[in-house]
Amino acid sequence: MFKIARKNFALWAVALAVLFLLIQVSADLYLPTITSDLIDKGIAQNDHAYIWRQGGKMLVVSLLGLLAAAANVYFASTQAMKVGQKLRTQIYSKIINFSSREFTDFGDSSLITRTTNDVIQIQNVLVTMLRMMLQAPIMLIAAGVLAYNREAKLTSVFLISLPLLAISVIAIMYFVVPLFKSIQKKTDRINLVFREGLTGVRVIRSFNQDQFEQNRFDEANKDYTMTSTKAQTIVSFMFPIMTLILSGTNIGIIWLGGHLIGDMSMQVGNLVAFMTYATQILMSFMMLSMVFVMIPRAQASGQRINEVLNRESSVKDATGDDLKVFDQTKPASLEFDHVDFSYRGAENKALENINFKATAGQTVAIIGGTGSGKSTLVNLIPRLFSADHGEIKVNGQNNALISQNELHQAISITQQKAVLFKGTIRSNMQYGKADATDDEIWQALEIARSRDFVEENGGLDATVEQNGDNFSGGQRQRLAIARTIIKSASIYIFDDSFSALDFKTDAELRLALKDDKNVQKAVSVIVAQRISTVADADLILVMDDGKVVGQGTHADLKATNETYRQIVESQIREGDGQNA
Ligand SMILES: Nc1ncnc2c1ncn2[C@@H]1O[C@H](COP(=O)(O)OP(=O)(O)OP(=O)(O)O)[C@@H](O)[C@H]1O
Predict the structure, then answer these.
(1) Which of 116, 125, 143, 484 is the right S-S partner for 277, CB 3.0 to 4.6 Å?
(2) Do residues 544 and 369 touch, judged by C-beta distance below 8 A?
(3) How many CA atoms, within 13 angstroms, populate the side-chain half-sphere of residue 346?
(4) Measured from the CA of 345, which atom of ligand 1 is nearest?
(5) Where, subcellularly, is it found (predicted)?
(6) pTM given for the model
(7) ipTM value of the model?
(8) Is the dihedral of CA 515, 518, 522, 526 positive or negative?
(9) CATH of domain 2-309
């Protein structure tokens, strides 16, 4: 956490916060002296002019202290907010460059908690640090010295009250610090259950699992609340204990001071000043302990933030001479050369010895059973994961040696789950091509068989809700396909994108795709489950358990490949293979 603060603070603002703090502390420390003089020299000697003068002085010093405190709070808070802002930006730009592996490792909900809740913890403790952590020790020492100078004998009271305070604070910290640390993890859990509930709300309802999910959330919520309540209950003991010790100290001072005044070895003003110093000493001690309670919680948050900031993406650009400039003038081609890939921790390879090649204008179709490795294979092309062995060549260049930026520019992909962003049809299409004209957008929508429903919904300015929730699954797929083809690319990838389309639309769409100029110059990769979708591809890869068990055209495979034949037959039986 201190590392985070050091990196992100503006030094001039911190210096100003400290300066105003010192002014405030000096004012606070000077006030008891004025009060003492006012009593001993003004009230005791009935000197009205002196009383007025001292009263005025008191007012000015108090006002100065007040203004300085306000200025300190201003600089401390603005600095803490700015650190928070910078941290959120740093975390977000880090996360956006993570590969799928890092997302799996951290978990989406934890990444959200780290960007929001953990940053707020850091902000809160930074404000406290810039106020109390400096104010408390200065005040403690200065008020101690001043009190000692006033009346050394009275300071013996602190020999009892300060150790008592220290023991109470240590006892409270011992119980509360581990609780604070676990609160952050429990916040993660609440977010996870909440997110799953929100994204899966339709599934939950259709399976009548509302109560089950409600219970799951209640459990996480209860767990969080119980830990927080426990922590706050323990902290709440701090204030009565402090008040008790403060009152006890004051009683001790009055009792001892009373004797000293009776012996004529001390004046009343001195006693009042001493009592103010005593309050300042004990309050400073309290502030300091509050800071010590807050720091471990913020430390835990700082650690969680640093874990994200220090995490390197497992997919990195090549460096130095290894990094090659992507030659955009080369004709499109895609080649897998002895490619192996395993997910971390998995026993078996998700892909084993994949070899194929396709050139400009060709369509590669990938078919195979569930979990056979189709999506994994296409995700390796834009390097969402890095291959363990072998090479994947895009336009003849090893994709591991091109910068991810250039690689992603050369590839346009529709993921298995269509993702749309909140905005309009136009803004979603401009994700594919930032300067796309209306004509270009309509043309892409036409190819993706989306023109009709977009027109019905109000045209290019029609609203797209979060996740495209105001469109059907098939419509979302078609919009995602339109966004993919509006981008000019060397490789177009459609990962099971046609599955939500009816047979007729599927056939029309693929026919229209073939006529598109961009697509004609590129390699298209289509992952599909239906024989009818893959039948007219130039090259079909049949996948089974991470291996390509057959490759060729529909006619070749039907004649020679047993797995392919089984898929064809099963689909004919289901009346699903009209084109087979
Ligand atoms: N992120 C991941 N971490 C670990 N294992 C994974 C991950 N994603 C997929 N797998 C595993 O890799 C294998 C291949 O998965 P993949 O998603 O590529 O299959 P698929 O052929 O696309 O399946 P489907 O047709 O159901 O989409 C499966 O056994 C799956 O369990």
Answers:
(1) 143
(2) yes
(3) 10
(4) 4
(5) Cell membrane
(6) 0.71
(7) 0.95
(8) negative
(9) 1.20.1560.10
